[in-house]
């Protein structure tokens, strides 16, 4: 096996995370092209992936998969299976029920990519975890945004090409992890299984504070990402403009990568808790201002949306760093996976709720998202 420096390993991990998570929002990017869906199906297509991810994270957490098996192997096989499930939509996309099942399977095995990637980062870069997770979650953000970019720029390939591109990327990412990370440095032998082990970590005050801050963040994040195409379509109709809905959706989501990297760098100076606190505060302000700016000029509205895109994700890697730091070493992977599972369960409620509110109130429904930052800030109480 080739050996790489830590800097090279970090960039390989970042690429693999980007490649694997490009599968996440494929359904949203092709929703108006699939034979079996309609434009208002975005909430269901997003939610079924979240349900799959929740099921995956629950089982991965329940059996301590990330602690009992080499994370590199978990990441590799999860990438392959998720990519295959995604690819099958090309041939089975005429049946909505089958599409939903395949998206569920993809979501299930994304549980072996996103949180397991964080486990690898926690093992390899413990001394600069905030920075490493900043890059890693930035990669997740770019991966999530990537299908929207392909959709906005590609006219000849079509929706099948978007699916194939994401699937190939995921396979390549899994192979990179398999060959670059043969086993984690701190890999432990299989441990005795205790179902309540991970839940006991919530007895720690610092761990509980970070986890509940993360839950508030998750209420806001995926609901915003899911509603973006509908929001920009409504803006086009109301203001008689013709902006590219999918390119703007890509731009706002991808802007979060800047926030993640900047937050990771700032965490080296300020600490993860302070970065998470102020990011959550700023994104909460954006959620309150966005409905008001919806009536303003395009420059003001789009500028605010880009700022929101940056701040809404900047806290995510810092919460992950705090959770990893305060979790017990022997159960770090399980604790990360469990908190992620709960966080994504929360996204189901906010995605479905904003879908129904948006149909009647459009931009005003974005005020709903401010509840997450408010509760998250209450959990953090104040920065150090």
TrEMBL record:
GO terms for molecular function: transmembrane transporter activity. One of its GO terms (cellular component) is plasma membrane. Pfam families: MFS_1 (PF07690). It comes from the Bacteria. Residues 1-384 form the Major facilitator superfamily (MFS) profile domain. The chain crosses the membrane at residues 45-65, 72-91, 97-117, 129-150, 162-181, 209-232, 244-266, 335-358. Keywords: Membrane, Transmembrane, Transmembrane helix. This is MFS transporter. It comes from Flavisolibacter ginsenosidimutans.
